[in-house]
Specification:
This protein is mainly β. It has one helix spanning about 1-20, and strands at about 25-30, 30-40, 45, 55-65, 70-75, 80-90, 95-100, 105-110, 115-120. The strands form two sheets. Strands 1, 2, 3, 4 and 7 form a five-stranded mixed sheet that branches.
């Protein structure tokens, strides 16, 4: 029985290791880095790793996974100038391309209020 339990535990560990998706680095196409975001009822989930971003042009591709209309708003981190803002129907995807400087940006849903998600970890190296 101990042998069976050990084998079952090892099989489960292998299964979890091979099926757990890890966020990858965002893809850059023609100088624009694409960040995929899924918006749920009150929060965002990023498909890509958002650490170690560099100044440049970014395309935020946002998919509404909530059962109601939500929105997307991205602002300059320091001045709070709105760089892009749009509503999003359930199941729809929209995108916005913005320039991100060293100060970074922040984003949220202005319709179904979410906390601000800060991308202030912009590096220049």
């Amino acid at each position: 029985m101990r042998r069976f339990t050990a084998l079952l535990g090892m099989a489960l560990a292998v299964l979890l290791t091979t099926t757990t998706a890890q966020a990858g680095k965002p893809e850059t196409v023609d100088g624009v880095t694409v960040i995929h975001l899924d918006e749920y009822n009150g929060y965002f989930a990023a498909e890509d790793t958002l650490g170690g971003l560099q100044p440049g042009r970014y395309k935020f591709v946002v998919t509404n996974k909530a059962p109601k209309v939500v929105g997307f708003q991205v602002q300059h981190m320091e001045s709070h100038e709105t760089l892009a803002k749009f509503p999003l129907k359930p199941g729809h995807t929209k995108s916005a391309t913005v320039r991100v400087g060293e100060a970074g940006v922040r984003y949220r849903c202005p319709i179904n209020p979410t906390p601000w998600y800060n991308l202030d970890n912009i590096t220049t190296d």
